[in-house]
What we know:
- The chain is α/β, with parallel strands linked by helices and about 475 residues long.
- It has 20 helices and 15 strands.
- The strands form 3 sheets. A 7-stranded mixed β-sheet has the order 2-1-3-4-5-6-7, with helices on both faces. A 6-stranded parallel β-sheet has the order 8-11-12-13-14-15. Strands 9-10 form a two-stranded antiparallel ribbon.
- The longest helix has 18 residues, at about 410-425.
- The protein is globular, with a radius of gyration of 23 Å.
- The model has no long low-confidence stretch (mean pLDDT about 95).
Amino acid sequence: MRHKIVLYNPGAVFWTMPLGLMAIASALDRERFDVRIIDGRLEPDPVGTVIRETRDALCLGTGVLTGSPIRDALRISRAAKAARPDLPLVWGGWHPSLFPADTLAEPAIDYVVSGQGEETFRELVERLAGHADMAGVQGVSWRSGGEVVHNAPRATRDVNDFPSHDYSHVPVETYFERKGKRQLDYISSVGCRFRCAFCADPFVYSRAWYGLTAERMGAELSDLWQRYRFEEIAFQDETFFTRRERVEQISNTFLERGLKAAWTGTMRADQGFRLPEETLALGKRAGLKRVMVGVEAGTDEMLKRIKKDITIEQVFVTADKLVRHRIGAIWNFIVGFPDEPDESFEATLSIAKRLRGMSPQFEAAIFFYKPYPGNEIAERLGAENYAFPTTLEGWADFDYVGSAGPWVTPQKYRRVESFKFYQKYAFGGRRHPLLQPLRAVSRWRVERDFYQFPIEKKLVETLHPAPKLS
């Protein structure tokens, strides 16, 4: 008998393809399971679609990130359970992995898959198909007799052990349209070997990392290009440049196969510092267009405190190399750490400004630190009675992009938000004649750190409000 599996991707403000759901769908036996992926961002009536598709389904699985996607995931889950009370509901992804017990406090949710999901979900649906319980299925938390049971965790496995992602599960052309460019999302590695004190990766992956071989990537991406003719690949890896030899092998494979696509990937500053010039040149020839580098803090002292394990010197050596090879970069920064000295705050903005001015291909993204369990700083704050959300509804209101911790003064918050706005126009943006006055004013403000009376910012935000949840 072939069983139907429905997977749901909650609404969000970005258009990244649902790679996590594609991974678990691709790991299931097509002869035994018929998988339907429903993306809440694409559906005019997500609730109606889910209820209709789950009438004859074995289960409904949902991949959930912390923040506003939780609200949509709850809405869908409750509606599906009300329509079919016997339907098993499974949540996986970052939030359930970190908070399995809190997630299972929601009556509509029956099972949580923690960590890497391909093998765990496959075993889970086999148990559901056989009307068996989940005893012994590693990586699953579940309710038994009214009590939450946490099975043993499942170790992260080499991604080469799993099948290729089957992109026929999703409407690829629709994502291209929504993105406004033919950009394919692809993940070539899983995990992170580093120990940053502000990040949950060390907790989720236990500092493990596995990457697909260059040969497999070349074959998969060449096949995908023949089907979809994408112009760019966005590698959605935590740390794409983990191994120099692999980056060189990937670049050579792309060149040998004549892959006609630009690509972007994540890079640490210490990786860029050590990367030979010839490796960057090779990557550039193979289509490397842009890297994303986490600088985070503006002083070596603060970088040591947050265990980033890079230096400011490495940041600028990396930047110089990227400029020489005409490779773009998005430099990510975090301000507003608890007890962050004023000099670190000032240095962070100064370095962001300096990097932004080095190349028109450079961008700067600045975020406020928000405590998120699963990392050293947040655990310390929890011990000091910092109040984390305790319900799914509370976590649905969690905003780690546009909000700050209570220790950030309103003056600092306004300054950072103004800097983020004006640096975007001062150093980049569309070269349109109507934008030239805004560009000139923005450059003047950024050079002088003068953000009082931000009339231009309010005007632009009125005319172009931030996107809402899809």
